[in-house]
Amino acid sequence: MTLPKGFGTGGGASSSDVSKMIGRRVEDMVGLITGAFVALWAGTWGGVAVACVYYPWAYPPPSAHFALTVLTIIEAIGYLFCVKVVTEGTSKAKTYNGLIAGVIAAIAIATLVTDCVFFG
Amino acid sequence: MAQMPALIPKEVEIQRLKKIWLIIIALGSIAASVEVDNFVDGSLHQTSIRDSAFTPAHWWLYSHFIALPLGWGMVAVYDRKVPILRGPNNSMNTGLKMTILGYLATMFTIGVNEMWHFWYVEEIFAVPNHWMFNMGVVVAFMGALAYVVRVYARLVELGAETPGENPYVAEMYKMALEGKLYSRSIP
């Protein structure tokens, strides 16, 4: 097997070469993915808030509720897929099911509270 | 299922394919979110026919036409680290090429669309500038489907994903791996 320059010692790839070629492993990215999901949802909330406050004639409360709710569902599905893709089939025993359930439940509650209290 | 030659260690290839998969999920979520914006933008245009390019529905719509080609461009850059995903003559994968070309067409159409609405204010769905958006997106979606099937089929072959149990679906993966899903000559 031909390895890139700087890898291997002539006798094929060693495990440290493989680790170097991989860099950060996907199964170690769950924290990053969770942070990105929460930040994305907060950004979505902010975008909807801007639309409601500055363009109330064009974005009445039903539009805001629709946009925030459906976008939250799309983002949550993406988050679930990402965590499942990075953890399934790896040697890591953790499934992160509890984390996924907790984060999505928290975001769902925040969305419902927003729909009831904010945006009209 | 035919085994493709491994040019990089299997573990490295799985990790890289999964990183590509993560970017694709993010881009797919953006594309899905724009379906929401179709309603938001549509309801806006029913109340105020053509307002301005800078309303929240348009920020969302136009920024996705820039975010998606850039995102697929990132996939194309990272894709070079996975030899099995190369296209004909060691070029870019054909599906990826179609996706980027389709979204580049939509980026170009942003300008065309603004000129159209400057001169002809009407904002109905069937004006020609909107055809260009729709045709670009359809070309991009077709290419993205071909690419996603290719990545998925390789993950199946490497044992990182469970293959389809339905024999017809399994046959489709096999054909994708052999470069015969869409054509016998275009891998």
From TrEMBL, chain B:
It comes from the Archaea. The keyword Transmembrane helix applies. GO terms for molecular function: monooxygenase activity. Gene3D superfamilies: Particulate methane monooxygenase subunit c2. Chain: C. Keywords: Membrane, Monooxygenase, Oxidoreductase, Transmembrane, Transmembrane helix. CDD domains: arch-AMO_C-like. The keyword Transmembrane applies. Pfam families: AmoC (PF04896). The chain crosses the membrane at residues 20-39, 59-79, 100-119, 131-149. This is Ammonia monooxygenase/methane monooxygenase, subunit C. It comes from Nitrosotalea sinensis.
